[in-house]
Amino acid sequence: MSFSVGSLFAGIGGFDLGVERAGCRIEWQVEIDPWCRKVLAKHWPEVPRYEDVKEVGAHNLNPVDWIVGGFPCQDLSTAGKQEGLSGDRSGLWWQMRRIIGELRPEIVIVENVPNLINLGIEHVLGSLAELGYDAEWDIVSAQDIGAPHLRKRVWIVAHPESVFGDGCNDYAEHSQTTSRKFGRSDSSARRGDSPRWTTEPAMGRMAHGIPDRVDRLKGLGNAVVPQVVEWIARQIIYYSAKGERSGTSKTLV
Predict the structure, then answer these.
(1) Is 64 within 8 Å of 103 (Cβ atoms)?
(2) In CATH, what number is assigned to the domain containing residue 55?
(3) pLDDT in tens, 145-170
(4) Could you tell me whether strands 107-112 and 66-69 are parallel, antiparallel, or unpaired per DSSP bridges?
(5) Half-sphere exposure of 23 (CA within 13 A, CB side)
(6) How far is Cα 224 from Cα 51, in angstroms, rounded to an integer?
(7) 252: in domain
(8) In what side-by-side order are the strands of the sheet with 49-50?
């Protein structure tokens, strides 16, 4: 089973690499940073790329089975002013929501920093519910799948009722605490599913004398961990296939 995927806020392709490893194919990418687009062009030379999420939609993007993306976190991060979804950068969620509404994919995967829980996850879930999407969320770290570093992130998986059939909860009227969580909530158990990564490349912070070093650090800092994306994507594919074989709908839980 191979699903077509559209990648928003693609960055250097962490989401793209993860879903590809799970067996999906990238249909298009949207990324505004010129250096990141060069990286994407190197690794996905045949994939159409677009620059600005404000300028794409049903009029120029091919329909896809999945839409994935980590919308900008600057207005959500505890290191910033925490303007939330009303900020200029994190407010680009509403463009992602618009594109989802126009293309109507079967699966949506959203990533952001944990502080989204305090600064608007109920609006993200509510706006997805308005489109007819049920959603599940959890905090999953790189450490949960065996990495020697933490990197906690909020992951949201959304789908229409027809995909898994468990109903579309009205998140617009409920707080984020009522949301069901996907996978297992026991991080120590999840870590047992994957062997520990033996090594990671050294990433010094000095930029002097190294071509594109600042761009590289920025790209890596903004990127998702592909192994986490792969793990989530494989859960979705597994339950999709299981539901088809049994003739019944399944949830991700």
Answers:
(1) yes
(2) 3.40.50.150
(3) 887 778 899 999 999 965 554 433 33
(4) parallel
(5) 11
(6) 19
(7) no
(8) 49-50, 25-30, 4-8, 66-69, 107-112, 152-160, 133-141
> Using CA atoms, how far apart are residues 6 and 110, in angstroms rounded to an integer?
12
**36 tagged catalytic:** no
3-state secondary structure 122-160: HHHHHHHHHCCEEEEEEEEEHHHHCCCCCCEEEEEEEEE
Do residues 105 and 132 make contact, with C-beta atoms less than 8 angstroms apart? no
Set 24, 36, 73, 168: catalytic member = 73
Which range marks the domain in which residue 230 is found? 4-246
Contact call for residues 115 and 80 (beta carbons, < 8 A): no
Report yes or no: 150 and 142 within 8 Å, Cβ to Cβ.
Answer: yes
Alpha-carbon distance 103 to 63, whole Å? 6
What whole-number distance in Å separates Cα of residue 99 and Cα of residue 8?
Answer: 9
Q: How far apart are CA 101 and CA 22, in angstroms?
A: 25
Query: What is the CB-side half-sphere exposure of residue 6 using CA atoms within 13 A?
Result: 25
pLDDT tens-place string over residues 99-136: 999 999 999 999 999 999 999 999 999 999 999 999 99
Residue 141 domain flag: yes
Domain count, the chain: 1
Asked if residue 251 belongs to a domain, the reply is no
The b-or-e profile of 237-251 (16+ CB within 10 A means b, else e) is bebbeebeeeeebbb
- Write down the pTM of the prediction: 0.80
Residue 253 domain-assigned? no
The CA-atom distances, in angstroms, between 237 and each of 39, 57, 65, 157, 242 are 27, 25, 12, 12, 8
